Amino acid sequence: MTVEDLDEVLRIERDSFPKPWTRDQFESELKNPVSTAYALKVTEGGKEKLGAYIIFWVVHGEAHVLDIAVNPGMRRRGLATALLDAALEQMRRNMVYEVFLEVRMSNWSAISLYRKFGFRESFIRRNYYGDEDAIVMTLVF
C-alpha cells in the first residue's frame, strides 16, 4: 500500500466499517516502522482497482492485524483469503509465533474467515468499538 492508494482505501474503509479509520491513521501506519500494509489490486474491465488491503504490526515475534477490508463490489471472490494468506506467510518468514486481532462480535463473515486459518477466540474486549464488543482471536504457529 502506498499514499497513492489512500483515496481508494478510504472509500473501502468507509463502506466496510461503522467507525472507519481516517486518512491520518493510514498515513501514520505507512510511516510506522513495525507496520506492514498490503494492497491487493485487481484488473476489471481493463482497469486496475484496489480490491482489498491489510495492515499489521510485527514486534518481537508477535503480530497484530489492525485492519483488513475488501471492496464491497468484490467480496466473495477470495480476495480476503488471498491477502490474509500472504500476510501470514510474511509473518512466518519474520519468525512470528503468535498473531492477534480484534473483530466485531457481529462480523460473522470475518470470524468465519479467521477460523478457517486456525484463529481461535481468546477473550472478549468489552465495548472495544464503543458500540460493540470485540472478540480477540489468536493464531499460534
Poorly predicted segments:
none
What's the alpha carbon Rg, rounded to whole Å? 15 Å
Strand order of the largest sheet: 1-2-3-4-6-5
Instruction: State the total count of DSSP E strands.
Output: 6
Quaternary state reads: single chain
Q: Helix proportion of residues, in percent?
A: 25-40%
Average pLDDT works out at 96
N- and C-termini, Cα separation: 26 Å
Shape: globular
What sequence of helices (H) and strands (E) makes up the elements? Answer: HHEEEHEHEE
Descriptive overview:
31% of the residues lie in helices and 37% in strands. Strands 1-2-3-4-6-5 form a six-stranded mixed beta sheet, sandwiched between helices. Strand 3, helix 3 (79-93) and strand 4 (98-104) form a beta-alpha-beta unit. The relative contact order is 0.14. The chain is globular and about 45 Å long. It has helices spanning 6-16, 23-31, 79-93, 108-116; strands at residues 35-44, 47-59, 62-70, 98-104, 120-125, 134-140. It is an alpha+beta fold.
Structural topology:
Elements: H1 6-16, H2 23-31, E1 35-44, E2 47-59, E3 62-70, H3 79-93, E4 98-104, H4 108-116, E5 120-125, E6 134-140
Structure, briefly:
With 141 residues, the protein is α+β, with helices and mostly antiparallel strands. Helices cover 31% and strands 37% of the residues.
Please supply descriptive tags for the structure shown above.
single chain, 141 residues, six-stranded mixed sheet
